[in-house]
Amino acid sequence: MPDHETPKLLPLVMEEPRGRKKPPRHLADLTTAERKELLEEKGLPGFRAKQLSTHYFARLVDDPEQMTDLPAGQRAELVEALLPGLMTPLRTMEADKGTTVKTLWRLFDGALVESVLMRYPDRATMCVSSQAGCGMACPFCATGQSGLQRNMSTAEIVEQVLAGARALARGEVPGGPTRVSNVVFMGMGEPLANYKAVVGAVRRLTDPTPDGLGMSARGVTVSTVGLVPRIKQLATEGVPVTLALSLHAPDDELRNELVPINTRFSVAETVEAAFEYAETTKRRVSIEYAMMRGINDQAWRADLLADVLYATGADWGWVHVNLIPLNPTPGSKWTASDPADEREFVRRLEARGIPTTVRDTRGSDIDGACGQLAATE
User: Taking the model in full, what pTM does it have?
Assistant: First the structure.
């Protein structure tokens, strides 16, 4: 058990401090109508907004010289109005023979965030950040130890996906050209603490092209440590993304230490909110559980986890458990579970009829745990 004091938690939704300079407005921040209005406010033809959206979302073009349907005399002005630069790659690291690519980005104000592109035989997944840093203060998480710098804008979140989409479309990742099939909000930050921007990003990713990227909501997963009011709000948005609940412990005593927001919303409240989300959206919830040696990987805790999940009274398969072999940060006392303990944990859950998987670990040799790369800068 950790011996740290429970840190002070930030509000459920972080408000930006007054006077802080905001990221430049980008078409991904705006609805289709708002894009047109912005150009007209700048004295530019509103119909050009659809052309710019087509270049960005459908053709995945980021070089203005390739936007030949825009008049040469106005091209720079149009691009500056709706496609301003949002982030600059600082470092790129590869693993798994080039099919896992982690990028450290510098945002306009110097904040650092990370994204990871993971290509598998049957899919290509982008793991994106939603905040620079994180205010949830989970002691085993590299990002949680760095604290929260600021929320990211909708467009900053979307641009991480588009950068990966361009790399895949151009055949820069081994395996030939393809498209992003899945997006997981499991990078830096607590997505539901930046609720408005994250929901905006989900809408941009799932809006039909050229208004958005045209992804299926079924390919998008939003993770949370358990901001119960926001889970309930997300269920009403009409975008049936997969909800991933980072539980990490089935009992309040331990979870209060591992996931400090649990002092505000108990295990029972959090799991009940996740169950309600599944009932409303008809989407199975994923329970994320980082396996930590001697901390939360005891066989009796697997039994307790099953009890907690069955306590909802559900008579259908509303949930599956995703065990995560911990990717330890350098110098940390938190280490991955013994494989034998991991197997017994899986066996206990499956014996209770709960579908259980062990996450494929990628990127451990490139500071794969989110926040590690930013911390080294």
Answer: 0.92
